[in-house]
Design brief:
This protein has 151 residues and is an alpha+beta fold. The protein has six helices and six strands. The chain folds into two domains: 89 residues, Arc Repressor Mutant, subunit A (Orthogonal Bundle), CATH 1.10.10; 61 residues, 2-Layer Sandwich (Dna Ligase, domain 1), CATH 3.30.1490.190. The chain has a three-stranded antiparallel beta sheet. It has a three-stranded mixed beta sheet with strand order 5-4-6, with no helix packed on it. Belongs to the Fur family. Keywords: DNA-binding, Iron, Metal-binding, Repressor, Transcription, Transcription regulation, Zinc. It comes from Halolactibacillus alkaliphilus. Pfam families: FUR.
């Protein structure tokens, strides 16, 4: 974790920002709960446990800054709630998600599934792709098994 915090600190410094204690507390929560796709409010409640003096507005500003600097990605799974996801180290693109429409579970797909599609877009439309996001909405394995057991 300390290695990742140091890398994020360097990213901030490269853009003339500092890793303040409030920002570091927010980053630590994101690192500790990396698989959870937390909302700003979720992050705030967890940061507050570590640093009770931090306000919700500070957490929002920190998340917006980290999003602008491409340290985190702001995502929405169609439920009206923005969630924050740390970018994977060394990842050329944002990773993909599988969202269960029944239980709300979210799984990540780290493998880039769209290389051929990107190449086609660049070749046929002369459009330079910088990033992409792909979210599949469906029913997860657990819910399918539960549904099959109930039928």
């Amino acid at each position: 974790m300390e290695h990742r915090i140091e890398r994020i600190k360097k990213q901030l410094h490269a853009q003339s920002y500092k890793l303040t204690p409030q920002r570091e507390a927010t980053v630590r929560v994101l690192l500790e709960r990396e698989e959870d796709h937390l909302s700003a409010e979720d992050i705030y409640l967890l940061v507050k446990e570590k640093a009770p003096e931090i306000g919700l507005a500070t957490v929002y500003r920190t998340l917006e800054l980290l999003s602008e600097l491409k340290v985190v990605d702001k995502i929405n799974f169609g439920d009206g709630v923005s969630r924050y996801d740390l970018r994977k180290e060394g990842a050329a693109h944002f990773h993909h998600h599988l969202v269960c429409m029944e239980c709300g579970a979210v799984e990540e797909i780290v493998e880039d599934l769209l290389e051929d599609v990107e190449k086609k877009i660049e070749d046929e439309w002369q459009f330079q792709v910088k990033d992409h996001r792909l979210t599949f909405h469906g029913i997860c394995r657990k819910c399918q098994q539960k549904n099959n057991a109930n039928n």
